């Protein structure tokens, strides 16, 4: 049983941790890019395609000028990714570049799990945006949105249960 002082100390530590986490997640990465001059207007009839990959997921991204629709495999992004974190992850390049409400994005994605698919979409959208506006390349690269995350599952080795897990050792 905790005394009143200990309980207050534990609550204060939890509040401090929550505040530090909120500051860490709010810093820097999602703030829109500040640029001089007008953004490139993408005509509705122009189509830009790109491919993004993450783990075993492959996303084929098509962007065109429009009203900001974001469809994944024929469904709205809110329906395809129910977790808000994955929706923000997939939309991140658009928000950073400032094209969030002006470009329609259509994605066909397959393979892997939902987190890998969201990462593949993010990679593909960033690559497509650099084709639309080459000046964005430096900023997107600096924020790590153009880098292909090459981490994949390690293969299973002979004599082991998984990639590195060994069978239990018995001395007798």
Query: Count the helices. How many?
Result: 5
CATH architecture of the domain at 48-142: 2-Layer Sandwich
Give the percentage of residues in beta strands. 15-25%
CA-CA gap between termini: 45 Å
Give the number of DSSP strands: 5
Question: Which key phrases capture this entry?
Answer:
172 residues; alpha+beta; Ribosomal Protein S5, domain 2; 5 strands
How would you characterize the overall build of this protein?
This protein has a 5-stranded mixed β-sheet. It has 172 residues and is of the alpha+beta class. The mean pLDDT is 87. The N and C termini lie far apart (45 Å). It is 38% helix and 17% strand. Helix 3 packs parallel to helix 4 (114-132). The chain has a domain at 48-142: Ribosomal Protein S5, domain 2 (2-Layer Sandwich). The protein has 5 helices and 5 strands; from the N terminus they run αββββααβαα. A hairpin with a 2-residue loop joins strand 1 and strand 2.
């Amino acid at each position: 049983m905790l005394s009143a002082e200990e309980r207050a100390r534990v609550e204060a530590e939890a509040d401090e941790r929550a505040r530090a986490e909120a500051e860490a997640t709010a810093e820097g990465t999602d703030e829109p890019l500040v640029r001089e001059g007008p953004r490139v207007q993408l005509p509705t009839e122009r189509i830009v395609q790109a491919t993004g990959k993450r783990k075993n997921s492959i996303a084929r991204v098509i962007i065109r000028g429009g009203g900001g629709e974001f469809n994944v495999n024929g469904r709205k992004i809110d329906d395809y990714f129910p977790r808000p974190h994955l929706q923000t992850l997939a939309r991140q390049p658009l928000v950073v570049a400032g094209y969030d409400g002006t470009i329609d994005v259509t994605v066909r994605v397959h393979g892997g799990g939902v987190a890998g698919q969201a990462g593949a979409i993010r990679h593909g959208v960033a690559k497509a945006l650099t084709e639309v506006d080459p000046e964005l390349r430096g900023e997107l690269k600096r924020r790590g949105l153009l880098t292909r995350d090459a981490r994949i599952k390690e293969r299973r080795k002979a004599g082991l249960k998984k990639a590195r897990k060994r069978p239990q050792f018995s001395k007798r």
